UniProtKB/TrEMBL annotation:
Record domain Plant heme peroxidase family profile: where: 99-314
PROSITE patterns: PEROXIDASE_1 (PS00435), PEROXIDASE_2 (PS00436), PEROXIDASE_4 (PS50873)
Reaction(s) the record says it catalyses: 2 a phenolic donor + H2O2 = 2 a phenolic radical donor + 2 H2O
Cofactor(s) named in the record: heme b
Lineage: Eukaryota, Viridiplantae, Streptophyta, Embryophyta, Tracheophyta
Enzyme class: oxidoreductase
Protein name: L-ascorbate peroxidase 6
Keywords: Heme, Iron, Metal-binding, Oxidoreductase, Peroxidase
Entry superkingdom: Eukaryota
Native species: Castilleja foliolosa
Amino acid sequence: MGSTTTATGPSLFSAATHYTSGIALIFPARSLPTIKFVGKKLTVACAAPSPPPPQFGRRALVYVATASFLMPFPSLASSTDEISLLQDEIRKVLSKGKAAGLLRLVFHDAGTFDQGDKTGGMNGSIVYELDRPENTGLAKSLKVLEKAKGGVDAVKPVSWADLIAVAGAEAVSVCGGPKIPVRLGRVDATVPDPDGKLPEETLKASAMKQIFQKKGFSTQELVALSGAHTLGSKGFGDPVVFDNSYYKILLEKPWASPGGMFSMVGLPSDRALVEDDECNRWITKYANDQDLFFEDFRNVYTKLVNTGAKWRTI
Ligand code: HEM
């Protein structure tokens, strides 16, 4: 099986006995779980609810009577409340300018999945992997989410995996893309995923198709997911608008125009997709039909954020 996992909520405290590269877990601590960013390193401090006072008799009765009001993590009435809480806290820290980074975070957490040995996937392990070269710049996006996590944890602890999955969906939505419902209950890994699982930007389409196949994704799904590059600064239209301009611009191949003005548009891996017949057919479909792109992106995003996830059982 894949990486070791730990449940969210109070059992997150048990993770405090582990030490993993990049994360120092300090136990016990007096405050709610927080992550302190020191450069690219993360420090997780976990708190346990205080034990009852040692006195017995009337004071103990008062303690029992008030304990339910003082419990740090009152449970929410329903999963609808839970998702609303996450969305509210994420929207407090999310701006259109931060959306691209948050969406990229999703792929870099989930995209490590390997169907062969069932390692990787959407498990929050990205918090241990920030010093990998392919994750350059993502500490900033995680830092943005840390604030939202604090707000959610104060009501009910949330896993990084759930938080990142919902944040990516909110990022798409705030930029005008499809609304994507996200199931909750993912359990975080306690160790980093195996290294070298994300595709490199220099790959040809055939290699990219193979890599995505090993993660359980078809060519159509690879092309739909790659449409995420419509956000960000690679030249596919407005950097903060989620639409189908990625596909329209890919078909125009601006990088091939003389003059070099558009030579910076797209990554080599984006340009490679349009040269592959099978990918090109999907690129053309999505360029001509934004609704189809939105529908397929919604479906493949859902698949991505469930990929390799371990789910809590209560
Ligand atoms: C298909 C293989 C992929 C490769 C090789 C790849 C590689 C890259 C690279 C090299 C960057 C530029 C990072 C930088 O600016 O320094 C980037 C940006 C980005 N990637 Fe990907 N990516 C891939 C797929 C995906 C997928 C599936 C998603 C999300 C579902 C995604 C989301 C993004 C986003 C949103 C950005 C813009 C980030 C920003 O401007 O802050 N990528 N990607």
